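Translate sequence into structure tokens.
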Amino acid sequence: MSRILGTMAAVAALATTPAFAQIKMATVGPMTGANAAFGEQMKHGAEMAVADINAAGGVNGQKIELQIGDDACDPKQATAVANKMVSDKVIVVIGHYCSGSSIPASDIYKEGKILQITPASTNVKLTDDALAKGNTTVFRTVGRDDVQGATVGAYILKHHRNAKVAILHDKSPYGKGVADETKKALNKGALREAMYESYNDTDKDFTSLINKMKQAKIDMIVLGGYHQNAAMIIKQSREQGFGAQMVGFDALEDAEFGKLGGAATNGVLMSFPPKAEDDPKNAALVKKFRDTKYEPAGYTLFTYAAVKLWAEAATKAKSTDAAAVASAIRSGTYDSAVGPLTYDNKGDIKNPVYDIYVWKDGKSYPGPK
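Result follows.
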């Protein structure tokens, strides 16, 4: 009888062994709402990475189970989703997209001991504030607003030093962040903006703002905001005979910008990291996406890289514990689809690069240096 009981106990123990459990991972972003195109990029990037990792045997003998969270780029919804991830015992979150979502969610992930890697949130406060609060488990696979601002500022100072510049932003942490960092760079270079204005991201008619820029004889618009507003502003500007050059930032990098703005987007400039989908070393990976009828543009490969970064660090740490994986991330350089990833104590990548791109016929291409 004792032998039978012992056998039953062994079977029960095997049934509850953690090695048979799946690792719960989530990617969270705007799956609905105005920025859903970017949520789609994140979803495809995460799904492909998880499929590749699981096909290779998983992480430390465990397969990854991916959840998709929708924050609609709304801070309140983002905190609700973050709390759900804690309740669901998710180990790592790849997200969010909007800085206004990532920042409040990061506090919840810290308390829930969830490691966070954003492939897209660029506001400096995300990692600066995390460090100040002792949060060592937040990372990005992309650069920051101060790098974007310096890049755009340097471009304007080099090519348009005598321009009358209007700096516009949508009041969001992202939009105001990149606008203010560009303002700093321009002012440091002795170029003072002629206008500094904000607008609401729900605005549809920008006639008043355009007229104000006309009266000020603005010939360059620096726009800190998302692609829908940018498309409306440039389209309405051209319709009203206002031909100022527009330069935006990474949130323009989706084909939807060209579709919404049409021919008016031709010549619009933006900052974006070197495009990973154009890197020859990613040819096989890009083909895998294209074979599924999906173009891995924008933040698709930044999300793919974030998932792979976590998996490689967890393998190196031989653990999925947030603190242990964070330590492993900081302890080396990881080759990725978006280039080598080496981290500082804040969780920012070292030596991030942004380039200037130009829109033409619905696509963005490398622009002037």
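Note: Confidence is low (pLDDT under 50) at residues 1-20.
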